[in-house]
From TrEMBL:
Organism: Alkaliphilus metalliredigens (strain QYMF)
Name of the protein: Prepilin-type N-terminal cleavage/methylation domain-containing protein
Classification via PROSITE patterns: PROKAR_NTER_METHYL (PS00409)
Domain of life of the source: Bacteria
NCBIfam families: IV_pilin_GFxxxE
Keywords: Membrane, Transmembrane, Transmembrane helix
TM helices/strands, residue ranges: 20-48
Length: 206
């Protein structure tokens, strides 16, 4: 083999060696880039899922609050001695309103028991005003779970106070509803929603 041919072969070997090292470096850099992209995508998807879960929880709570708001708004006095909205305690609220469309107001109970928000009701014992209620509540539904606060319902207040004894009575009532949920499914671990409610009816349920 001539000296010229040997030098040419040596240059090819050296050139091939550098190409292999460059290839290894490129693969290593590519792996680093892929890992970075994967982490970014993973964190992005995780954040998106958390936001979606938060939005879903908030939407479910808003639907429940909308139902309570509707019940309170349509509440009417069942008899001369009872207000349309009655707070038993900070975790139990009674509302009188017609939800079965039979012309008679049902006695609806919203109750928080063991961190679970429940809704149930019972029908009137008689067909005409004044209405009375007895027996156990039925049609119970679980609305919200993982409630951590105890101050759910505020004390109902009069919307207006009659200026004179001869002024027509105003049976409307206003109150606030506060719900705090603690759950690992919620970003930050908790979610708090507060809503002010008011009944609109100024008259009895006759």
């Amino acid at each position: 083999m001539s000296l010229h041919s040997y030098k040419g072969l040596n240059r090819i070997r050296k050139k091939s060696g550098f190409t292999l090292i460059e290839l290894i470096l490129v693969i290593a850099l590519l792996l680093i880039v892929l890992m970075a992209v994967y982490n970014i995508l993973f964190l992005g998807l995780f954040a998106y899922e958390k936001i979606s879960e938060d939005s879903l929880v908030a939407m479910e709570i808003q639907l429940v609050i909308a139902q309570i708001e509707r019940d309170v708004r349509q509440a009417r006095k069942p008899n001369d001695d009872q207000d349309p909205v009655v707070r038993i305690n900070s975790q139990e609220l009674i509302i009188y309103t017609d939800i079965t469309q039979d012309g008679k107001p049902e006695q609806i109970r919203y109750l928080v028991d063991g961190g679970v928000f429940k809704r149930s009701y019972r029908s009137s014992s008689n067909a005409e005003y004044p209405y009375t209620y007895s027996g156990s509540y039925g049609n119970e539904r679980r609305l919200i779970i993982n409630i951590s606060n105890n101050d759910i319902f505020s004390e109902p207040e009069e919307v207006t106070i009659p200026e004179h004894t001869y002024s027509p009575p105003d049976y409307r009532r206003k109150l606030s509803l506060k719900i705090v949920i603690d759950s690992l499914d919620i970003r930050g671990g908790s979610l708090e929603i507060e809503k002010f409610l008011m009944s609109r009816s100024r008259v009895e349920a006759d």
